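[Solved] Which block belongs to which protein?

Original post:
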Amino acid sequence: VDEASKPGTPNIPYSEEEFQPVGPAPGFADARPATASRPSTAKSLGPNNPYPDFPSLNEKEELEEFALRPAPQNKDIKCRITRDKRGLDRGMYPTYYLHLEREDHKRVFLLAGRRRKKSSTSNYLISADPTDLSRDGESYVGKVRSNLVGTKFTIYGSGLNPMKPAKAGPDGLVTYREELAAVVYSTNVLGFKGPRKMTILIPGMTGDHERVEIRPEIEQQSILERHKRGEVANILELHNKTPVWNDDTQSYVLNFHGRVTQASVKNFQIIHDNDPDYIVMQFGRVSDEVFTMDFRYPLCALQAFAIALSSFDGKIACE
């Protein structure tokens, strides 16, 4: 359900600026943006670049390293996701483009994602090349895979699946893929369609602010299985912020400070329970096919984009 909240539909979270309904944000037209088919070629990260180690993103390797680098502390990384449904099969398998929003309003392409067609579960491939979204492509950087009912998602980096025959690299070593996060959607307490409940599990951070590597070789070592057993060392648990009921609008509300302007059950903010005022990530709709996605430390662009992709999927079991 992705329509604005109205009296009589109290179950849809309402996205608003300073808790006041507003129109489309400046610069966001309802028409399909040109970036849907041809992402921006701008590569400089522009003035006030939040990533001083990356003055520009001119090479594929830089894009991939950037996508996996945790956001700098005390910086808000503002991005936009464009959904492209054009084409014979893109109604069911749209392509999603992630752009970094520069302060001069130009955009820098970061990542693209698309749901795989021949997969028994929801499975999204993520690439640093908007024209090559294949599993064997040189720009493949990660994937999102759900369970059968679409309520649990695991986010992987590139690398080998330990459940398949291993191929050693040139150095003779086998590098299994890194688990970057897991997302769990659960039934909301109201018992009908309404604000979603999300649990996000990510690897912890070292004292040098680097992500702890988690590379399971068997299923029991995965983030989801470790969390289920209560083995939470080096795992950080986050949740979506609970919307507040607004009597005036007869809806649930979150304050996105103008970054989200249309109501949708997909809109969310991610926090840690110990610091609910620190928004680790927020995501929401601004027009039919455009969404904003902002994130902070300790998330990286790939983690945030993959969490957003999971929210596009249908959660039959928890809605």
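(Second protein starts here: sequence line, then its structure tokens.)
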Amino acid sequence: QHYSPDQVQVPYFVQDTPAARSDLAAQYTTIGRMDQGIGLVLEELHHAGFSNNTLVIYTSDNGIPFPSGRTNLYWSGTAEPLLISSPEHPARWGQVSDAFVSLLDLTPTVLDWFSVPYPSYSLFGKRRVQLTGKSLLPALSSEPPWATVFASQSLHEVTMHYPMRAVQCGSLRFIHNLQNLTPFPIDQDFYVSPTFQDLLNRTQGGQPTHWNKTLHSYYYRERWELYDHSTDPTESQNLASDPRYAQVLQELQGLLLKWQWATDDPWVCMPDGVLEDKPSPQCRPLHHEL
């Protein structure tokens, strides 16, 4: 099945122009073909006699490859498909869960499915390695109270160095852009896409972009970004400097920092310091007045 530009629903983070609509229509068509392919795989699974004892997981590695999507830690960049089908959990077949999960949860889920414990080991003489994810199998029986999830992005291509860390806690999304003084990089395949070329041409020609951002604001970001999805689902108003959210900002900064230490994040001290391991892991200040 082929889709035409007038059939697509343009998401809020993509400009509503003929070029972007054509780009989205092409993705619709590609997804349709992929859906047919998945159907063929499931059919083969059934014919082979394994459909009643196989856990099927479908997901993706990042968000949609459009502005504010892939390589970003906005909602539009971290929103990924996740479908799980278990023959042993019929109670929630066909249901949608609002629980917060991430790709870090897939390894614990597969180990749980096979009842395999995670091995005990350490790296470089440090503390024992532990998985930071959780098994998703309980969510197949009842809705879990999972309301916090973390996200990380350091680079997409070797020349696309732009480390970011984020946490979503309830309706609040907090993003730390660790090197916000440099422009946000654009990966090569996205650069040549009709959607981004349309944004470039319209901006350079002084024409309306029909976008919810400008290229300048997309390239140059604040160090801290805080959005409240309960009142701002399109992440249009950065509340990080709002005095009313000062305490919330401080709590989320602490929560994110705690997660970085727990996961041995090498960027935990950036951009204000350098991580030194001896005599114990600690941040040494740079005093660079950022």
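Accepted answer:
You had them paired correctly. Confirming on the second one: The chain has a mean pLDDT of 95.
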